[in-house]
Write a structure and sequence with these properties.
Layout: H1 11-33, H2 41-60, H3 64-81, H4 85-99, H5 104-121, H6 124-141, H7 145-161, H8 165-181, H9 185-200, H10 209-221, H11 225-238, H12 246-254
Helix pairs in contact: 1-2, 2-3, 3-4, 4-5, 5-6, 6-7, 7-8, 8-9, 9-10, 10-11
Length: 255
């Protein structure tokens, strides 16, 4: 049996090829911006394809800034056509994946541009997905819990609008986590109680409800003992078997 051998491109060669392709793309994009650009739709497409090709070669060379810049150039040029928004959003996401390795803030900027495009297109599930990515970058790379909380909440709003309850709850639990860490106990308690209530009403999830009711009452306890007692009574009304749990016993001993 004969096997075809593929030659891997060395990093230095990839970078050199990418730079040449970028120059070619810039020439084509300049043509489209002049008078003859009125008839240069195909040149725009060619320039965009060249920017993407250059971006991928820069990725092979691990030149992350240059790769991100190439994808951004493609996105901007694609948007100038007006009818290729999905491709532009994809370019911004590709750019973000490059920038996040060296500059999380630039990665976030690109993701927010992608979110804006997907929102205009009515692709709210995609917009929610990338709001989550923004939140994760603020959480992990930027160590900014307030902004992470903000974007998890925006993602949850979009997921709720699309009836993606599981994804919305996942985001809201992150919001509750950060709210508690930031001592916004009322906000955290309300979220935990709301999710506990929704779980209690679901046959498959009801046994997890006690965990969220426990966290809700704990958050109230950080603010006011009387509020905690009222919250505990509400949880029992909603989910009577909560009284049989170890979590309930611990809370009763603490209030």
């Amino acid at each position: 049996m004969n096997f075809v051998k593929f030659r891997s491109i060395p990093m230095e060669e990839s970078e050199s090829k990418a730079q040449k392709i970028m120059q070619e793309a810039e020439k084509k994009s300049r043509i489209t911006s002049g008078f003859f650009g009125l008839f240069g739709g195909s040149k725009v497409d060619e320039a965009c394809e060249l920017y993407v090709k250059a971006g991928n070669l820069f990725k092979i060379a691990k030149k992350w800034t240059e790769a991100g810049d190439a994808f951004v150039r493609s996105a901007k040029l694609t948007l100038s056509r007006g009818d290729y928004k999905h491709e532009a959003a994809t370019n911004y996401v590709d750019a973000s994946n490059c920038y996040r390795k060296i500059n999380p803030k630039q990665a976030i900027d690109c993701l927010l541009k992608a979110v804006e495009i997907y929102s205009e297109m009515g692709r709210f599930t995609m917009a929610a997905k990338y709001y989550m990515s923004v939140a994760e970058l603020y959480e992990v790379e930027c160590n900014d819990p307030e902004k992470a909380m903000h974007y998890y909440e925006k993602a949850a709003d979009y997921y709720k609008g699309e009836e993606s309850k599981s994804s919305a709850n996942k985001c809201m639990l992150k919001v509750a986590q950060f709210a508690a860490e930031l001592e916004q106990y009322k906000k955290a308690a309300d979220i935990f109680e709301e999710i506990g209530t929704s779980y209690a009403e679901n046959t498959l999830l009801k046994y997890s409800a006690k965990d969220y009711f426990f966290k809700a009452v704990l958050c109230h306890l950080c603010r006011d003992v009387l509020d905690a007692q009222h919250a505990l009574n509400r949880c029992i009304d909603i989910f009577p078997s909560f009284q049989d749990s170890r979590e309930f016993t611990l809370l009763k001993a603490s209030i």
